[in-house]
């Protein structure tokens, strides 16, 4: 079974490598990083789809499905579980959704291993002088993807315990951000004005607040509190409704239960949803102000416009999601837009730390993985 699972992850990675090798970009290492980042973004979106369709336990064991590498081989077990609970967490469709999510995640793991190997190769070939190929960042990526895999396993074995699922989401977003940072290191960016130095603290604060909001959003989703406030902008017709923060924000507990084992009261779900909604006001204010400030700095304007556009889109999707009673497509898009904001804010933070002309203090190397060594561009 493990060999069959590994072959599926390898197949996903090979498809990504075909895109890399067929690209006209001479820097195949850079292309590999960006393709891996794009696949990670897709897996975050598909992970949201998995969670929102209640498919997280479509295969209630790990890493396989009832001890098999795919749902076809486990069809007898799935049918039996579905017959006992027709509306339960195990169905043929949910099993496929969960296993496809795992296959894609394994493919990312294989690609990150490739990034690590290639980074070490070029770094050593350069006599350890090419800092952009320093293996410390790829090694950190490898560590993170291993931790992420462990939390993916615990998500299933601990039966969707909310804190585990939320951390799983945060680690996925962190992996996306780290891949964005590694990819940014492989590119010579346009001139960034020295005023970008003044944006370092605001950009970092914006990223921290966004991470906290994503954690709150994950807590809403994993506790199924999305419809706890079904009206907008009020909640149950009040600005401050009746809420139970103690039970709502007890972190270590089973899904739908209090720490004492009782069913989670509805007021706790209201507290979870209301907190996410109110904290969004602070996030919008800080992100909007940071992006607006970045608009006046050469070299940051394109990224700042992207942040503002994504922020407006996220606000519209968030309001529409509540107003339209949480349609699946909008809920998935809400997660995807959050991932897009992570990507853009990481890029903004990176650019704010390189206030120098394009190429200054950067190695002018073009890397082609089809060649045996790095070739230096004398231009």
Automatic annotation (TrEMBL):
TM region(s), chain numbering: 6-23, 32-52, 103-124, 136-157, 163-182, 203-222, 274-292, 304-322, 328-348
Transmembrane listed as a keyword: yes
Alphabetized UniProt keyword annotations: Cell membrane, Disulfide bond, Heme biosynthesis, Iron, Membrane, Metal-binding, Oxidoreductase, Transmembrane, Transmembrane helix
One cellular-component annotation, GO: membrane
Ranges for region Disordered: 357-379
A Pfam cross-reference name: COX15-CtaA
Any one Gene Ontology molecular-function term assigned to this protein's record: oxidoreductase activity
InterPro entries: COX15/CtaA_fam, COX15/CtaA_HemeA_synthase
Protein name stated in the entry: Cytochrome oxidase assembly
Topological relation to the membrane, as annotated: Multi-pass membrane protein
Biological processes, Gene Ontology terms: heme A biosynthetic process
Places the protein is found: Membrane
Pathway of action: Porphyrin-containing compound metabolism
Keyword Oxidoreductase: yes
């Amino acid at each position: 079974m493990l060999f069959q699972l590994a072959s599926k992850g390898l197949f996903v990675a090979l498809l990504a490598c075909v895109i890399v090798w067929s690209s006209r970009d001479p820097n195949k290492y850079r292309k590999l990083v960006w393709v891996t980042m794009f696949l990670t973004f897709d897996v975050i979106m598909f992970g949201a789809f998995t969670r929102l369709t209640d498919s997280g336990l479509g295969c209630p064991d790990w890493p396989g499905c009832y001890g098999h590498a795919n749902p076809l081989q486990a069809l007898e077990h799935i049918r039996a579980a579905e017959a006992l609970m027709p509306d339960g967490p195990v169905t043929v469709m949910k099993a496929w959704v969960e296993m496809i999510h795992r296959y894609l995640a394994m493919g990312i793991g294989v690609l990150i291993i490739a990034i690590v190997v290639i980074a070490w190769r070029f770094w050593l070939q350069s006599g350890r002088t090419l800092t952009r190929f320093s293996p410390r960042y790829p090694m950190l990526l490898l560590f993170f993807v291993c931790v992420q895999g462990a939390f993916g396993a615990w998500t299933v074995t601990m039966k969707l315990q909310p804190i585990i699922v939320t951390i799983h989401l945060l680690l996925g977003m962190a992996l996306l951000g780290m891949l964005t940072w590694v990819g940014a290191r492989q590119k010579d960016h346009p001139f960034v004005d020295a005023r970008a130095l003044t944006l370092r603290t605001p950009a970092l604060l914006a990223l921290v607040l966004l991470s906290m909001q994503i954690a709150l959003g994950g807590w809403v989703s994993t506790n199924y509190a999305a419809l706890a406030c079904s009206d907008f902008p009020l909640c149950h017709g009040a600005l401050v409704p009746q809420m139970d923060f103690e039970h709502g924000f007890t972190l270590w507990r089973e899904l739908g239960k209090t720490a004492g084992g009782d069913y989670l009261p509805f007021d706790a779900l209201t507290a979870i949803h209301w907190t996410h909604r109110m904290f969004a006001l602070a996030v919008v204010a800080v992100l909007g102000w940071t992006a607006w400030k970045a608009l006046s700095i050469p070299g940051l304007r394109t990224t700042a416009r992207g942040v503002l556009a994504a922020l407006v889109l996220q606000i519209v999707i968030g309001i529409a999601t509540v107003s339209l009673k949480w349609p699946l497509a909008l809920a998935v898009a809400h997660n995807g837009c959050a991932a897009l904001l992570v990507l853009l804010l990481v890029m903004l933070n990176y650019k704010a730390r390189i206030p120098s002309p394009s190429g200054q203090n950067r190695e002018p190397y073009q890397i082609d993985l089809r060649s045996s060594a790095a070739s230096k561009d004398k231009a």
